[in-house]
Hints:
Blueprint lengths: L23 H6 L8 H14 L5 H11 L1 H6 L7 H26 L3 H16 L10 H13 L5 H27 L5 H11 L2 H6 L1 H5 L5 H4 L2 H28 L6 H9 L3 H33 L4 H30 L26
Amino acid sequence: MQAFPHSTTATPTAVVVPPxxxxxxxxxxxxxxxxxxxxxxxxxTRSWLLExxxxxxxxxxxxxxxxxxxxxxxxxxxxAPDEVLQAIAxxxxxxxxxxxxxxxxxVHGRTGDWRRLxxxxxxxxxxPKHHLHHPxxxxxxxxxxxxxxxxxxxxxxxQRFARHFHAVIEAYDREFRNRIQGYVPGVEEYLxxxxxxxxxxxxxxxxxxxxxxxxxxHVRKNPAYRRAALLSQEFAAWYNDLCSLPKEIxxxxxxxxxxxxxxxxxxxxxxxxxEVRQRVEECVxxxxxxxxxxxxxxxxxxxxxxxxxxxSAAVHTCVGNMRNWFSSVYWFHHESGRxxxxxxxxxxxxxxxxxxxxxxx
Length: 361
């Protein structure tokens, strides 16, 4: 199902993309797609945020739809069964709330609270059933979403997902310490860390339940498949950095590719923006090349057997959803209230976050 041509809001309007952020190739070569379950998805994730007490009721009412978290996932995993997409969307919404909690802990210097949360998330990832009623809503909601994700594919997929998310938690800890210390990582150090804080391999893992198939190692590790997956995520992370730069400079951030380039490469703000934009554009052009290799690989898997045909179809679905990530991420950054910093009363504090929801007293 092709999405609204301009916006996924209930009353579609043309989205104005700032000239410095316009990517004509995305707008022309990556048509937007939207899962037909999206309207129901939005409604149910909104209810889940309330049920799990992840956002106060007034903030859910005022901001949840405008943040477009469900739009992002519904534009990515377009072929997923409804229940899989719902589990992914709820998990994604949780991820954004966790990111906001992490940010507030940094801003308020709550080192002990962050350390406790870090340990609890590690524990909930390994034993979600035992954390469904944890007193911290963030931990309980995480356990709920993980347990649901664990129900779609074999235990081997669950173990891989857990391994990848343990690494994400540790990367968030590294970012916490960097920000508390005012340490700006070098460019290569930042890029390596960003692959974890943006959860590259988590979103790639979730392609598989969306396609209804755990991919064997030789498929996932195929160079073309792996490169296409990485490029879709690098694009998303670096485009996010490009769009987030004003917000993160306002908040005295240290984690942004642009900030690393300014600090360690001596670039001006304008030069840093140009460099990040160039990297983003190179991701797109390289993806268009490697996508064809990945699709040829998918065709080769169809060896005349039923198993080969099913696996080939799953890989085609996964590669198609990697492509969807480009348009979904691009438009999300221009529709979500998360990036409309100029409209905030305080450019360093998102209006959809309260100190109470972020663990403050």
